# Entry
Amino acid sequence: MPVTATASPALAADAVEPGRSLWQDAWARLRRNRMAVIGGVVLLVLTALSLFGPLFLAYSYEEQNLGLGAAPPSAAHLLGTDKLGRDQLARLLFGGRVSLLVGLAATSVSLTIGVLWGSIAGYAGGKLDAVMMRIVDILYALPFTIFVILLMTVFGRNFILLFVAIGAVEWLTMARIVRGQVLALKRQEFIEAAVALGLRKRRIVLRHVVPNVLGPVMVYTTLTIPAVMLLEAFLSFLGLGVQPPMSSWGLLIKEGAEQMEEAPWLLIYPAAVFAATLFSLNFLGDGLRDALDVRASKD
Amino acid sequence: MALLEVDDLRTSFHTRNGVVRAVDGVSFCIDRGETLGIVGESGSGKSVACLSLLGLVPQPPGRIEGAGAVLEGIDLLRCPQEVLRGIRGRRIAMIFQDPMTSLNPYMTIEEQLMEPLLIHEKIGRAAAARMALQALQEVGVPEAEQRIRSYPHQFSGGMRQRVMIAMALIGKPDLLIADEPTTALDVTVQAQILDLIAQQQRQRGVAVIFISHDLSVVAGFCDRVMVMYAGRVVETADTRTIFREPKHPYTRALQRSRPAMQAKGAELCVIPGLPPDLSRPVPGCAFAPRCEFAVADCGRTEMRLQDVGAGQASACLRVQRGELTLQ
# Structure
């Protein structure tokens, strides 16, 4: 990607190429960002492995071999086995399903509620805004762990509940971010200009407000996914989340940490995969933010 | 018959610190194809008066009242929201001060130019795109065919203001309100933009209300000038008259404070004091505390515009009484 003096006129020309939408532009810019591309590829590979990998393995995630115990990586068990003799690779891949699914599902919950809540509050303003944001404040004030423990004890340990619990906490920040953005946007002159041109409210929101909020929302979404996965890991670590023999990356890390002296491979592999995922998501998020900022295309 | 007749327009803002009377009884009218300049310092209510006409003042805290603002039979102050929305951008268009922030950064120039057409006219996208291109060429954007698909940040300030003008004129409005359209631009670009507005105005016969705090800009551009101070009109006359024989001390003081009027090295003329706080009632003439000709009566008598010559009206008590001749 040589950005030299000779290359820049070509870049400028391609910025005004006909028929290019915001998304095509963003895609072109994203592809030029090496770290973001690597992050995206890593994520795709991990997702594919988690989805299809277990189909090709000789062992299932819950198949025990008590005689084997915690064995180090070998030809039969590529990543070794845990103390119950369960194949670590199978558990890691299967755990990926859970972790990625939690990340995705909880993030969608928080994205939907947060963006709706925030944009309605921000655009309506006045009393409605005040009431809606005070609700957010109240929920913010609830300690998360207590909230989850409460949910778990009332409704029992339930996989779906995990999504709900995490989503219910994560949308608060999203709502605040969106509301702040919409508030700032409402005072922008181009919104006033749109009103002066005779546009209807709905068109103003859909055509002028939403695309301008999109950048920060996308970025925050990619930051929410790792946060959600960390929360799941944290809950599993506390014994509130996913329970054995089910598996998730958080759970594997917890189990691995308990035996890290006698069986370090049980900690190293899940931790490495988890860290790689978080890094990838952060790089991709950074790349998306830059790609979606049309003003950045100048250079 | 005049295109727009504004009678006793009053806009106030109801804030925690009291009622701010930003526009206090402004009346004027403008004919088709005429250019009216509104001059005054910051906070004199010139922008708010024009925004009020289109209902663009946020309500609350703003409140727009008045005897009427009639655009060929439609009272803008009392018509339903939906009627007013149909007038915005179609019969009355507006150009804002800062072209850097008046365009949506996430939409191409083409989409933004097409928008007023798509919402006000029954017209397809292809036809709208053709008109958008034509409009962009008419305001003198070079290589319009290519540049129409770029985003606002790829345009300079002057070019963006040209786009704003194209956007305002694309719906063929009867009245164009230009709210300090050149204030945010370089001096060299200012002249080009003024020429462009003047040229478009001549070609299309659109009436223009030109808001500015720059007297020299108004002088070269407008048929008639209205001087505002503290939310009220203090003097109105045709441009030549108001510059030759101002009939209000404030107009004269404004003219004197132009740097070009002074000899090199001489100290600049300034108007002492500050404009009054509009959240308190202003008794008598609002300019009296700063006026070098003020007498005791000025602070007591409620002033109205009164004809003081051919097509010239002043709100100065002493001028109306014939005690004062300014030059």
User: Anything to note?
Assistant: Chain A touches chain B at residues 15-20, 22, 188-190, 192-200, 203, 207-208, 211-212, 214, 294-295, 297-298 (CB under 8 Å).
